[in-house]
Amino acid sequence: MTTPPAPLAKAPDRLSLRERIPNIAILGPLLALLLAVIFFSTQSDRFLSPQNFSLIFQQVSYVAVLAIGQTLIILTSGIDLAAGVMMALGGVVMTRLAVNSGLNPFLAIGLGLLATTFIGWINGLLITRLRLPPFIVTLGMFGIVFGVTQVYSRSETVSNLPAPLTFFGSTFQIGTTTWTYGTLLMLALYLLTHVILTQTSPGRHLYAVGNNPEAARLTGIPTTRVLVMVYTLAGLTYGIAALLLTARTGVGDPNAGQTEALASITAVVLGGTSLFGGRGAIIGTLLGALIVGVFTNGLTLMGVPSVYQYIITGLLTILAVAVDQLSRRKA
């Protein structure tokens, strides 16, 4: 006589108190952003102009989109050290296919997005099927993707891009201020991700997997499928970031992206997302990216050398991680 299997517990369909904490946690990054804006507005007359704010949004757009994928991964207790070089590969694939191979630019963009999405899928499979740490998998993928990018591009920058590849760098006017379509795309992606994370079952499953993978599995959530999907979607966002970077610079650069993974992690951490997973909000990541952008822009207007900007950004990252660690100890 066999014992019938116990029914699976119903997956949570409402946000728990712990899952609601991220909505409160974005107040910290928002306050930090406001204080930074107030400080730099007292240091430079040019800082508080609408055109300068438009410039800040343009400067952070591709890193902010990169950070969307990084946020999804960090919410599951993972990390992606290959995000930047995957973005560079996506940009090189798009530009070389369109310029060197004469492919239709829209098809070239699609194949570039497909390349980064495929690598994200491979990352997800390696992490879930072989049970390898995300840190090791993406560190190894960093070297592989960087090498492939150099070989495929012959270490040459691709220029003279067709119009579809630079469209998101073109501008439109609101009043006397010019904005880029890339900024609009970035904001639309954040709105879409916010809705998915807070209003849909896959979004709630992602938080559950990040909080406690075993408990999530016992409630019937397909944790392996969720993780593979997260890394695959992250790869897609890296491809979109590649399109924004290409549109902003006007070239396909094989050497781009070597420090952008760290920049995206910085934006996520400054935005209040826990490196231990299960806690954070995508709007916080946008605020984190803007904090970095405001500091970079403000220090530049003050005439501070760029080397000090790296030091300050690093200090901010360590401070944000320390605050996260302390908050977990008190929880």
Order of helices and strands: HHHHHHHEEHHHHHHH
Radius of gyration: 20 Å
Strand tally: 2
Mean pLDDT: 89
| Spatial sequence of strands, sheet with the most strands | 1-2
Backbone structural class? mainly alpha
Instruction: Give the terminus-to-terminus CA distance.
Output: 46 Å
Query: Assembly type of the shown chains?
Result: single chain
List keywords for this structure.
globular, mainly alpha, 331 residues, two-stranded antiparallel ribbon, 14 helices
Describe this structure in words.
It is built from 14 helices and 2 strands. It is an all-alpha fold and 331 residues long. It has a two-stranded antiparallel ribbon with strand order 1-2. A hairpin with a 2-residue loop joins strand 1 and strand 2. Helix 3 packs across helix 13 and helix 12 packs across helix 14.
Short summary:
The protein is built from 14 helices and two strands. It has helices at 17-25, 27-43, 50-75, 83-100, 105-129, 134-153, 163-166, 181-199, 201-211, 213-218, 223-249, 260-270, 282-301, 306-330, and strands at residues 171-174, 177-180.
Describe the secondary structure blueprint for this structure:
Elements (H helix, E strand, L loop, with lengths): L16 H9 L1 H17 L6 H26 L7 H18 L4 H25 L4 H20 L9 H4 L4 E4 L2 E4 H19 L1 H11 L1 H6 L4 H27 L10 H11 L11 H20 L4 H25 L1
Antiparallel strand pairs: 1-2
